[in-house]
Amino acid sequence: MTTPTVAASTPITVSLEEGTKYFYCACGRSSDQPFCDGSHQGSGFTPLAFVAEANGRALLCRCKQTATPPYCDGTHARVPADRVGTTFAVDEDGDNEKPESGGSPVGRTTQARPRRRRPTWS
């Protein structure tokens, strides 16, 4: 799978009109974030079409890591600010970067397992 470019490390609040069709940028290359401007051409990405369900403001993702596109789910908190403008993907645990291809996984600290207490026999 192709890795998106992080467009920003924060979401953006936009005004949506009920019944209007929008095209959310999935690649992160658009200069009209969070909406598509056609910059995905040749990237392997396609924009996500969605229709606003109500009039009002919505918080849309710009880190491109959300599990609920186009809406922000808070995943941007796990994206380092220095990754803006670069390709990046958080792993399933949200702790590591996934290598683009052929790279090794990034190590991470794990919690120590508690020691089992041995039963005492009377």
Describe this structure in words.
The chain is mainly β and 122 residues long. It has no helices and four strands. The protein has strands at residues 12-16, 21-24, 48-51, 56-60. The strands form two sheets. Strands 1-4 form a two-stranded antiparallel ribbon. The protein has a two-stranded antiparallel sheet with strand order 2-3. Residues 96-110 have low confidence and may be disordered.
Mean pLDDT: 84
Structural class: mainly beta
Largest sheet strand order: 1-4
> Beta-strand level of the residues, as a percent range?
5-15%
Largest sheet, if any? 2 strands, antiparallel
Total number of beta strands: 4
pLDDT < 50 stretches: 96-110
Order of helices and strands: EEEE
Radius of gyration: 19 Å
Q: Distance between termini?
A: 59 Å
> Any idea what the shape is?
globular
- Helix segment count? 0
Helical content band: under 10%
Secondary structure: elements and pairs:
Blueprint: E1 12-16, E2 21-24, E3 48-51, E4 56-60
Antiparallel strand pairs: 1-4, 2-3
